[in-house]
Amino acid sequence: MTDISYISMVIGLLLLAIPLYFFRMFGVPQIRAMVIAAARMVVQLFLIGLYLKYLFEWNSPWVNILWVMIMVLVASFTAANRTRLRYRMVIVPMCIGFFASALIVGMYFLLPVLRLAHPFDARYFVPIMGILMGNMLGVNVLGLNTFYDGIQREQQLYYYLLGNGATHFEAIVPFVRRAIDKSFAPCIANMAVMGIVSLPGTMIGQILGGSAPGIAIKYQMMIVVITCTASILSLIFTLYLADRRSFDAYGRLRNVRK
């Protein structure tokens, strides 16, 4: 695989001048945010590249699990900030939802599917957990926002259902349904056109790295399946656990926003 020199990296990063130009032309208030995001991306990826080098050399199951737990914490706090929900309401549910879902689906992929003798091998365990975590983060942010926005906006419907004999679970089902529907719509749309309209990054990366197209396609299909499955599991776990903290003993919604 052809390496990219640092000079070529700088040349490639200059492409970001195009969106920044149009942001400025149309007065889009995202110039500073994009510059900061790009700078953070470069620094973080270079640092993680150095760390992964040593992580792969150590190849300790305990170190790998600890690294996944750190990813879970970062993902949980990031999701809480993006949803503007109170930490005490969602941090623990998110941590449990992310970790449990990633571990269940990730180990299923590494053991029965890949049939690895050592599923905690850093070369496989850490990247798979990272892919799952990134997808779960986006789904949870959209799902939680949709769920709580819906209940806050339509409290009359929620209380109407309770007043007509519905259990708490039955009363929140319409809001959970909407949250799942909205958060998974982009995933399903991308899945439907994958391979025709779009060529996924994982598959392209493997092909550029020297893998045969047939192998890259198989991995890509499995990546889509496990990310979709882990995302729905994490959203359900998080909603279930967060719901228990979000309502008082009388079924009234607490102040969940910051």
Describe the structure.
The structure is a single chain. Helix 6 packs across helix 7 (155-163). The mean pLDDT is 86. The protein is built from 10 helices and no strands. It has helices spanning 6-13, 17-25, 31-58, 61-83, 87-113, 122-153, 155-163, 168-193, 201-208, 213-246. It is 79% helix and 0% strand. The longest helix has 34 residues, at 213-246. By secondary structure, the chain is mostly helical.
List keywords for this structure.
single chain, 258 residues, mainly alpha, 0% strand
Summarize the SSE layout with pairings.
Blueprint (H helix, E strand, L loop, with lengths): L5 H8 L3 H9 L5 H28 L2 H23 L3 H27 L8 H32 L1 H9 L4 H26 L7 H8 L4 H34 L12
Helix pairs in contact: 4-5, 4-6, 5-6, 5-10, 6-7, 6-8, 6-10, 7-8, 8-10, 9-10
Q: Rough shape? A: globular
| Overall pLDDT metric | 86
Sheet bearing the most strands, described?
none
How many helices? The count is: 10
Work out the strand percent.
under 5%
